[in-house]
Specification:
Layout: E1 7-8, H1 11-17, H2 19-27, H3 35-47, E2 51-54, E3 58-68, E4 73-84, E5 94-102, H4 111-127, E6 133-138, E7 143-148, H5 151-170, H6 188-191, H7 193-196, H8 209-212
Helix pairs in contact: 1-2, 1-4, 1-5, 4-5
The structure holds iron/sulfur cluster (SF4).
Residues 18, 20-21, 24, 176, 181-182, 185, 187-188, 191, 193 line the site of iron/sulfur cluster (SF4).
Length: 220
Amino acid sequence: MEVDDLLPLSGLQHLVFCERQFAMIHVEQTWAENDLTISGRQFHERADLPGQSWGASVRVARALTLRSDRLGLSGKADVVEFHREAGSDDGVPWRPFPVEYKRGRPKPGGADEVQLCAQGLCLEEMLGLEVPRGALFYGKTRRRKAVEFTDDLRARVVAAARRCRELFDGRVTPRVARHKGCDRCSLLDLCLPTVTGVPGGPAPDRLDSARFARLPEDFA
Ligand code: SF4
């Protein structure tokens, strides 16, 4: 797959948050800033300086380019730590451990976890070894949240990547009923969910467990 054919890895979190938001940003190329996106971007710019540092038990690579042909995604990892593993079962001396920086605090919905796990799957494909976990660092709490890349989370990533591809290739922007997340969405004034959304429809058209169970064979 050519690099130009890959979709941005960051689109996964948009899709999990709201399919319409994903389509407006990545299909229609619509963007607008609000205070949350501006402060989030500034937070990332401080974390995204490329470079490496080396320690006895942890090596750190910043702004590492990632890609997965299997998922059809490419992007950057804020930080990938490589943890020394003496005597690991598969003989890997330095285990990758992606760390994604988020400005706010942990949120329900799992968008951050899906994006982080996708980074882990990219690393697995690029390096040919298992990446079982990573962490989310939240600026508001100044704490790390450890994330295990379980089978369910991996399946969620695969399903989300497939749905991104469906919407992108089909040039589809789904109609979505207004939901709780709309108030913090920078596209609110462009989307007008109250006017354009599904009348009386389900709240957000989010990925659900039933859809995860319908994975296509080519992603299995
Ligand atoms: S305003 Fe709401 S429905 Fe519209 S893109 Fe944003 S989150 Fe989705």
